[in-house]
Amino acid sequence: MKKQKVNIINNNGSIENKDYRNLIILVVVISAIFLVFYLLTSMFTKKNNDNIFKNDLNNTEIQYKEIIIGDMFNKEGTYYALLLEKDEPYKVAFDSYINKVRENHTLYTVDLTSGFNKKYISDEYNYDEDSFKTKGTLLLKLKDGKIVNHYNDKDEILNKIKELSED
User: Fold this and answer.
1) Parent domain of 13
2) Highest averaged pLDDT of the listed ranges 8-17, 29-38, 67-76, 99-108
């Protein structure tokens, strides 16, 4: 024999069901479980997020040593720009002098393999600011954004960098 639900009609016309009590208890228990999980996860993620943001702020650094060719002509004062290819055989030799040069001179490096610099690569050199092109590794001396001198022979570049490192 099946158990039948008993609905009682109150004086005000509403139906009272004995299962309402069980439903309310179930909703309260489930809500309490969700609340506990929400509070726990928000506490742990907030701790981790705070640490992540603090570390990011402390480690953020803007470097001005490597530039793109488009910015090379926007600098003021007298400075040098060394345009290098990644597979440049002389790169190790150049790198050994770059920090010494930077002690007494402003020297920017330009990565010619960067996608930002691809449009400046050509089969011939053009030293005009508006249509600048390079075939490969190049050292430029610039003053207020204008090319004063250029060195495109690798031995000549290495000798100039050595000379600048000794100044």
Assistant:
1) 7-59
2) 29-38
